């Protein structure tokens, strides 16, 4: 009786060839190491050297790239820090300028109080807050302010009159209030005219042709000691109009007045 044996598949020729080649290569390497032990490291060095060198070059390139990004980031941070320092310095300079202006105003106010009977008052609200072309100041009945008293910005720049007086404050109506009329003299010839307020420190006046008024001429309040009132900005003259319109503006911007002097 025949017993059954497992069948074996024959190894393909290609596989046997590969196994044979691998065996021969192994024997060759073993023989080289055994017969020429000093040559084997140099062979490995020749084979692996270019690979190691390439890896070193790649590593150096990545390191240089990282340092470049890091350097740009540091420059950006340094630039931001310098900009912040510059902004801080500008704020400090602005604060010093404000303090200097306030000290100058206080010194001027003290000198004026000692040499003039006028009452000095601080402006609490200006035309951009109070009624159009009016000021509210911090001096009133207790300080001797009276209705009708004149108000000056500086020692001789007439800007308006006291319209109402309260216990601790007063309301000053500026001459530039729309529709307000004031007698003035215009130009070197002191030609009398009626100035009409147009708002925000602006005026107009009507004069006959041939008055010889030019841009830049002074406009003053008449009197023994004339008070500066404004400066001619432009002249409008129509061919059929016997009069010309003089446009002028006060020397003080009403939106920037901080102190006034009240008196005659």
Automatic annotation (TrEMBL):
**Keywords for the protein's UniProt record, in alphabetical order:** Cell shape, Coiled coil, Membrane, Transmembrane, Transmembrane helix
* Annotated coiled-coil segments of the chain: 72-99
Q: Which Pfam families match?
A: MreC
Any Gene Ontology CC annotation: plasma membrane
* Record GO biological process: regulation of cell shape
Gene3D superfamilies assigned to the protein according to its UniProt record, in alphabetical order = Rod shape-determining protein MreC, domain 1 (2.40.10.340), Rod shape-determining protein MreC, domain 2 (2.40.10.350)
- Report if keyword Metal-binding is assigned: no
* Regions crossing the membrane: 20-40
Rod shape-determining protein MreC beta-barrel core domain spans which residues? 123-262
What family does the entry list?
Belongs to the MreC family.
Q: What is this protein called?
A: Cell shape-determining protein MreC
